[in-house]
Specification:
This protein is α+β, with helices and mostly antiparallel strands and 217 residues long. β2 and β3 form a beta hairpin. The relative contact order is 0.10. The protein has 5 helices and 4 strands, in the order ββββααααα. It folds into 2 domains: 49 residues, no CATH class; 131 residues, Four Helix Bundle (Hemerythrin (Met), subunit A). It starts with 14 loop residues before the first strand and ends in a 7-residue tail after the last helix. The protein is flat and about 75 Å long.
C-alpha cells in the first residue's frame, strides 16, 4: 500500500480494534491502523459497524488528514511555508479557526522571509503595505486584499505576536477560506513569478554568452 505520510509503497496489514459500543447496541465503533515500514508512522481509519455485522459505513481517515493535491503549494515555495499551507487546507473542514491560525502563521513566515519583521503580524503587514521600493511594492489588487485581512473576524482585537502567531480566534468559515486564497496569490507573486523571471533571464544570458555578448544586468 501507499503511505500518505511519506508517499512510499510498503507491505502491511491493517490491525483492527473495537473502541466502543453504542449503549443501545446500535453500532460498534472500530479503528484500524497500519504502520509504514519506511517512515514508521501510522495510518489510522475509523468506522461504525452495525450490530449484525452485515455491513459497515465507509472508513474515514483520522491520520494523516486527507489533503487535495491541488491544495499543495507550488514547488517554488519554501518547504516549511508550503507544509503549513497544506495543514491549513487540511484542517479547514474540521475547524475554520484552526485553519485561519495556520494561515496567519504562513503569512507571517512569508513576510519575515521578505524582510518585514516586527513584534506582531499587523505591524509586519503595515510594513509591506508601506513599502516605498517600487521593485518590492505589491500590485494594487494584492494590496487591497492584504490590507483587508487585518480587519476580518477578531484579528484587530487579538495581536498576532511572536508568541501567539498560532492563536485561535473566532472567524467565519468563508474568512478562513479567504485567507487561503490570499496565500495562493502571495505564492504566485513572491515565488512563482519571481522564479519564472529568473529562468527567462538565465535563458537570455545563455543566448548572449553564446553570441559573445555581455550578460543582461
Amino acid at each position: 500500500m501507499l503511505c500518505e505520510h511519506c508517499n512510499n509503497h510498503f507491505h502491511g496489514e491493517w490491525q483492527i480494534e473495537v473502541v466502543g459500543q453504542n449503549a443501545r447496541h446500535l453500532g460498534i465503533a472500530r479503528v484500524r491502523f497500519v504502520r509504514c515500514a519506511a517512515c514508521k508512522r501510522f495510518t489510522v481509519d475509523a468506522t461504525v459497524f452495525d450490530t449484525a455485522g452485515a455491513s459497515s459505513k465507509d472508513w474515514f481517515r483520522l491520520s494523516p488528514l486527507p489533503t487535495n493535491a491541488a491544495h499543495k503549494a507550488p514547488p517554488e515555495v519554501p518547504q516549511e511555508i508550503g507544509e503549513v499551507h497544506v495543514e491549513a487546507h487540511a484542517v479547514l473542514p474540521v475547524s475554520a479557526r484552526a485553519s485561519a491560525a495556520l494561515s496567519r502563521r504562513c503569512l507571517q513566515q512569508i513576510l519575515r522571509e521578505r524582510g518585514y519583521y516586527a513584534n506582531d503580524l499587523k505591524a509586519e503587514i503595515e510594513q509591506l503595505l508601506n513599502e516605498t521600493d517600487a521593485t518590492r511594492a505589491l500590485p494594487a489588487s494584492l494590496r487591497e486584499t492584504i490590507d483587508a485581512i487585518r480587519n476580518f473576524g477578531n484579528f484587530s482585537a487579538h495581536p498576532i505576536t511572536e508568541t501567539t502567531s498560532l492563536q485561535v480566534i473566532d472567524v467565519e468559515p468563508h474568512e478562513a477560506e479567504w485567507c487561503l486564497d490570499i496565500l495562493d496569490d502571495l505564492f504566485e507573486h513572491f515565488y512563482v513569478k519571481l522564479a519564472e523571471a529568473r529562468k527567462r533571464k538565465e535563458a537570455l544570458n545563455a543566448k548572449l554568452e553564446a553570441a559573445g555578448k555581455p550578460p543582461a544586468l
